[in-house]
Amino acid sequence: MDGPKRSQLRVRLRVTARRRGADGDGAGGAAGPGGRKRRMEAPVRNSVAKLQRREIGGRQLAARGGGPAAAVPERFRNMQLQEEFDTYDENAHLFVKLQFLKRRSKIIEIVAAKDIIFALANSGLCAAFDRVTNKRIAFLNLSPDEVIRSLFYNKNNDSLITVSVYAADKFSTLKCRTTPIEYIRRNQLDAGFPLFESESLKWPGFVEFDDVNGKVLTYSAQDGIYKVFELKNYSFLYSIPDENVQEIKIRTPSYVPLKILSIEDGKQLKSFKHLLHRNKKIDFIEQFNEKLLVKQENENFQIFDVRSSELIEVSVSKFMTPSAFIFLYENNLFLTFRNRTVAVWDFRGELVTSFEDHLLWHNDCSTNNIYITSDQDLIISYCKSEAVAEDGTVVPVGSINISEIMTGRCIAKITANDPSLSVPGRRNGYSKRSSDWSTVPEALEDVTALFYDEDRNEIYTGNSHGLVHVWSN
């Protein structure tokens, strides 16, 4: 779909209803590879099965915090471990009835807004923490059988949207709810209200939030209809009939039929057929504005301009199929992820940047372990590193690497063997850190989620123990 870019950071978060039962820590665990809900959209043959894409857009603004680009590294210098939050609560049995919600579970997603940190565990339990008081506000699970699978911060109306499944219908239907941030801060969760109640979001139905265009897309498999809603007030805009096509499920061996619709009113802008190699598996088909990216097994990478019909081919030896993409809208570039490495490409099929020190820790390229600033200048990731224990043994602990996207240069790192890192007491008159809280190496071990709060200049990481750590200077 085509339309104006209305915000600096593009987030297209898709959550798909799943069949009866689930994987992960519990029956309604987060969807996605490794039991994760939120991740970059890996190339797949049927995009109805896709779960999520984060795409980046926006104007090139001055680096947050003021000053020229040369001052950017100062924002990350002397980052210290400042705080630790725990999503596990031994008293969880008092308000939840599902056994897997009562167990300690890894963090799969972190979202921050207006000094509140939201941490979603793989079990489906979601906690909100106040960064000012450094205390837990509440768990967002309103029902004892609610399993939260996704979070979305709606900056259009300053609210948090949760997407959940419930044991009552065997975790088969997605339910959306929006709650203003200010009401969450006051622990008035009942002030929220359900969304899209008229839609049947049973598997393989889905809901997708597009932050750039300010739209929500739902797909009801029962009715075979796509619907588009306004993200600001959730009003219905228009519907698109399925017409026996589930997005990019190929039914014709020699071409793929495509339609480009206006995201504002759903009117068809163009219809065409893109030729394919017969009997060749499709690795991916992706759209970026007027560009169509197509890759088939053992074939050249194709960049097709749907308006001018210009076709650029990149040799299969030069461009190998990545596991995921992130699009940089105003830079007119895109990132590819393959074998834990990151690269920047332009739409002429030319490699722009390779990163000097940015080997990702996880294979699944989850966006929960990657953050790209809204200025599109930096990528912050959980990367491979090795720490040395006190006895001299090498401990496999990751590092948080901050790199420039346009140059590939690593400008800052948070590593366990950095002698300048310490674990200070709490500030602002709060009590000292508990002696049983994580050390720096422990906080950097097995990080499963990462988020950078650009307003506070703080990095938040979550790990496999359900702990959230705050890194700040």
Task: Write a short abstract of this structure.
The chain is mostly beta strands.
What does this protein structure show overall?
By secondary structure, this protein is mainly β. Among the domains are: 110 residues, Thrombin, subunit H; 49 residues, no CATH class; 141 residues, Methylamine Dehydrogenase, Chain H (7 Propeller), CATH 2.130.10. Helices cover 2% and strands 40% of the residues. The protein is built from 2 helices and 34 strands. The protein has a 6-stranded antiparallel beta sheet, with no helix packed on it. A hairpin with a 6-residue loop joins β16 and β17. The longest helix is centred in the middle third of the chain and has 5 residues. It starts with 10 loop residues before the first strand and ends with a strand.
What's the CATH class of the domain at 323-425 and 435-472, please? Mainly Beta
Biggest β-sheet, characterized? 6 strands, antiparallel
Distance N terminus to C terminus?
Answer: 41 Å
**β-strand number:** 34
Strand ordering within the main sheet: 2-1-12-13-14-15
Spans of at least 5 consecutive residues whose pLDDT stays below 50 are: 1-12, 18-68, 245-252, 424-434
- CATH-level-2 architecture of the domain at 323-425 and 435-472: 7 Propeller
Helix fraction bin: under 10%
* DSSP summary: helix tally: 2
Looking at the structure, the CATH topology of the domain at 323-425 and 435-472 is Methylamine Dehydrogenase, Chain H
Shape: globular
Mean pLDDT: 78
Q: Could you give me the name of the CATH homologous superfamily of the domain at 323-425 and 435-472?
A: YVTN repeat-like/Quinoprotein amine dehydrogenase
